[in-house]
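Chapter summary example.
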Amino acid sequence: MSVDESFEQFQRPFLIGVAGGACSGKTTISEKLTELAGAENVALIKLDSYYVASTHPDLAEREQSNYDHPDAFDWALLNDHLAALVAGAPVPVPVYDYAAYARSDEVRMVRPARIIVVEGILVLYDPVLRDRFDLRVFVDTDADIRLIRRLARDVVERGRTPESIIAQYLATVRPANEQFIEPSKRHADVILPHGGMNEPALEVLLARVRELVRVS
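The structure predicted for these 216 residues follows.
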């Protein structure tokens, strides 16, 4: 893996972790930060890309896996990729196929940038990952709103049925939120209520990022 020559040598990126429950608005916050700070200044990494490659050949078996538990993620690979980005090297981020419940054969090349944003339900859970961040954000949205958003998203974008979404929510999503995700909020430097719709809070967050990394 070669060092990206376009990356400014010795300039350490500013790392931001954006956590929160499923459909809380993490992606909206992260994408707005990218848009407002400038895509050329931001490398966006999604925790979902690092689901452990499934060993189950049968789709029905993969559907039953717990995708909200910390064991579902390849923390070592994610931490290796962040270390490489900080060192100035591009990384091949896996592409996850939600319909197949498995990693695809594709990768997405992510290049170093002045700001690195990592978003996902458990990015404030893993202590090694958490300690890498210069700013830790938790997007706090009511559970009923998150469930409604999940129903709308997964039916349209992921080919799920309402029945399967509700069953998964009750079996794994809600328990994981209570056991792992919600407690990780105590590690946040900033808590954003109302998700990506909270424009005033987003403006404060963006101003802080601009102040710290001098992004115009």
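To summarize the output: The domain at 14-213 is CATH 3.40.50.300 (Rossmann fold).
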